[in-house]
Design goal:
One of its GO terms (molecular function) is hydrolase activity, hydrolyzing O-glycosyl compounds. Belongs to the glycosyl hydrolase 43 family. This is Glycosyl hydrolase, family 43. Keywords: Glycosidase, Hydrolase, Signal. Helices cover 6% and strands 40% of the residues. It is mainly beta. It folds into three domains: 5-57 and 105-252, no CATH class; 257-334 and 693-702, no CATH class; 346-670, Glycosyl hydrolase domain, family 43 (Tachylectin-2, Chain A, 5 Propeller). Strand 2 and strand 3 form a beta hairpin. The two termini are 53 Å apart.
């Protein structure tokens, strides 16, 4: 191969949650890249030294068939022979799995990269329990996965060997001359062993056992040097091509702004008076084009020199800007850097650009998470805070947005069933449904004396999150179709619970349903929400938004240690023919992460079918350094747009100082689309726009 690169796979020794390197992250396959095969250059960790390949959780035997349909990462994994018999949850009888009960999370150690006969990548590793402890499979088996480019993975399951004396530090090599794979490993006794097969992918997940022989001269294929990466536990190194390295760098490297330009503009020299003046002033809307290191592009509005534009407009009006003449207008590319934090102790945030009877406005709504108490904050004064302003920046705490909050709902308000809503008001989202501005949210109610299983309820007579369910309220409209003022609580309808197609509760397993959002595709409308620790979806009719029209189906299950037994907070956007649905995992706190599933848009896909969605194997966004400071527990985001039409991402992160968790703060960032069409949620300000390119000029030629 010309211009070869070396690729190192490794795990890490776990350090701390504050460094996004607890056991759930450390015990996964990481990747590092360097040019060439020598030792004269440093290894460059990919994905900010975060895991890229994670072992999939294994559904229990009792969750076979339909209940495991949403376990897409484990789709090829057979019933685990090393799993102790377990009793299924009630979710299985409803065609679903419950995270932590019906699916057993896993980790891995000692990863090994190799090439398959067809050129694809193979991964062999020792599977472990979540957190790294042995799970029994290491006695006689190892995990195998395959990938075309190491940006997505197909987990095939375990290769089983005719031994019970330990399978450690597995290596795999394809011998083209014999069309076979040779598998080498170290037994618990320190001796070397081997097995061989003509098709390792067929062996993975099979019940057949491969015969084992002693290996007289063990083939040492693992990396033994110092890779220079903190806490790394190296696996092995393989050469990859320049094309493969470029693909990995585009997905897992940093993308930065490398240039800015403005297309040449022209003016009609035949125009005079106000028409000529207007044509010049209209050029003030010209946007700059930004180029990025991966070949992607973006545009940004520019603050053009108003005096220069006015002067040129006057020339054009008077006829002195003649054909063939060129003028240069100076400007500065607009880059709003939003305050950090944007809104303190406001979790699950939603920013919505809306047209109020012809007047643009921006709205911000969120869960009150004061001191981390989102169930019953302020000692019984739970509320739903709404902010409205003429710009996104004006919604921030720094601009006085908190002082101008309006309480749309308060503790004790009644829902349409006459029940007192006393707590939570979780994850309110703004949408237009059936032509009406709507808010989807979850209130909760005072808990009953006893839980459904008959045990005493410690939240009896107090707000109980487990009583919560998805509700909708809509802004009223005048007879002529214009909207009432959204700033007046009385202008909203009484909140209604959203029920299934038979009029029953959404979640028959645990009662609670939350984090509802809207997806519209191919003329059909869907709700997606969280219940049973996972994402569910169902159709609805916008003219009757409080009732589903199809059976709820589970479509996203947390299958990896990084999303840690929960998937919640879904939110979708369509970009270039694909629906990008983000969701959050790993429970509330400093380990929170953002995952991604995607489906084809406008293709009449059945979005209630888990097979329509493709899941990213690793987080789209995770804890990391942003503009020089750590942000931990990033997640529960919503897509929106700023004043210039740029896509933004609104999310929360954990308040965490000196080891103390204090709730969640809202943040706002712009989104960049990479050359391969992936959303980048963590682009630093100077990566988005290099300050040296901020000042720019526009050439206008009369003709």
């Amino acid at each position: 191969m010309l211009n070869t690169y070396s690729l190192l796979c490794y795990t890490r020794e776990a350090t701390s949650r504050e460094e996004a390197n607890n056991e759930d992250i450390a015990y996964s396959m990481h990747l590092a890249l360097r040019f060439g095969n020598g030792d004269d250059s440093e290894w460059q960790p990919l994905n900010e030294n975060y895991g890229i390949f994670f072992a999939a959780g294994v559904p229990i035997a009792a969750a076979a068939g339909e209940p495991r349909r949403a376990c897409t990462a484990a789709a090829h994994c057979a019933v685990d022979p090393f799993d102790a018999p377990r009793q299924a949850s009630d979710a299985v009888s409803h065609g679903a799995v419950m995270p932590g009960v019906d699916i057993v999370l896993k980790s891995l150690k000692d990863p090994f990269l190799f090439r398959l006969a067809d050129g694809r990548f193979g991964i062999a590793a020792t599977r472990t329990d979540r957190g790294g402890a042995p799970d029994g499979s290491e006695r006689s088996a190892f995990l195998v996965a395959v990938s075309r480019d190491l940006t997505s993975f197909e987990q095939l399951g375990l290769v089983r060997l005719r031994t019970d004396s330990g399978v450690n530090r597995v290596s795999v090599a394809y011998q083209a001359a014999f069309d076979r794979y040779v598998i080498s490993w170290i037994g618990d006794n320190g001796e070397s062993y081997a097995a061989q097969t003509g098709d390792i992918t067929a062996e993975a997940g099979s019940e057949d056992l491969l015969d084992v022989v002693r290996e007289a001269r063990p083939q040492e294929l693992r990396y033994t040097g110092d890779c220079g990466i903190a806490n790394a536990v190296p696996g092995n190194v393989i050469p990859i091509s320049e094309t493969e390295a470029k693909r990995l760098t585009e997905r897992f490297g940093r993308i930065r702004n490398v240039g800015a330009s403005v297309p040449a503009q022209h003016a009609d020299s035949a125009l005079r008076g106000e028409a000529a003046k207007a044509s010049i002033l209209a050029l003030g809307a010209t946007r700059a084009e930004l180029a990025y290191s991966d070949g992607s592009r973006g545009t940004r509005a520019v603050d053009w020199d108003a005096a220069q534009l006015e002067a040129l407009a006057s020339e054009a009006a008077e006829g002195t800007f003649e054909a063939g003449q060129t003028r240069t207008i100076a400007g500065r590319i607009r880059q709003t850097i939003y305050p950090v934090p944007f809104a303190v102790e406001r979790a699950d945030p939603s920013v919505f650009a809306w047209n109020y009877n012809g007047k643009p406005m921006f709205m911000f709504i969120a869960t009150d998470d004061t001191d981390g108490n989102c169930v019953d904050p302020h000692e019984g004064r739970t509320h739903m805070p709404l902010r409205i302003a003429d710009s996104i920046e004006a919604l921030s705490d720094e601009a006085g947005g908190r002082a101008r909050e309006i309480d749309l709902l308060k503790c004790g308000d009644l829902n349409s069933e006459g029940r007192r809503m006393t707590g939570c008001f979780w994850a309110p989202e703004l949408h237009v449904i059936g032509g009406k501005l709507s808010i989807l949210f979850m209130p909760c109610f005072d808990g009953p004396d006893r839980n459904p299983d008959g045990t005493p309820n410690d939240r009896a007579g107090k707000p109980d999150m487990w009583t919560g369910s998805c509700h909708i309220m809509q802004l009223k409209q005048h007879a002529d179709g214009t909207d009432f003022d959204p700033r007046e609580p009385r202008n909203w309808t009484v909140p209604e619970p959203i029920l299934d197609s038979d009029g029953g509760m959404l979640n028959p397993v645990q009662r609670i349903s939350l984090d509802m959002t809207v997806i519209s595709d191919s003329g059909r409308w869907y709700y997606a929400w969280q219940q049973v620790g996972s994402i569910w979806i169902a159709g609805f009719d916008p003219s009757c938004p409080s009732r589903l029209t199809s059976r709820p189906r589970q479509i996203v299950v947390p299958e990896f240690a990084w999303d840690n037994m929960i998937a919640e907070g879904p939110n979708a956007i369509v970009h270039e023919g694909r629906i990008f649905l983000i969701y959050s995992g790993s429970l509330v706190g400093i380990d929170y992460t953002t995952g991604l599933v995607a489906a084809p848009a406008g293709a009449n896909a059945d979005l209630t079918d888990p097979a329509a969605w493709t899941k990213l194997d690793y987080p789209l966004q995770k804890s990391g350094v942003y503009n020089g400071r750590w942000q931990l527990g990033t997640g529960h985001g919503m897509w929106s747009h700023d004043e210039d039409g740029n896509l933004i991402y609104v999310f929360h992160n954990a308040e965490y100082e000196n080891g103390c968790y204090g709730g969640r703060d809202a943040q706002v960032r712009r989104v960049h689309w990479s050359a391969e069409g992936m959303p980048i949620l963590d682009m630093q300000s100077d990566e988005e726009l290099d300050p040296s390119y901020a000042d720019i000029t526009m050439e206008i030629t009369a003709r």
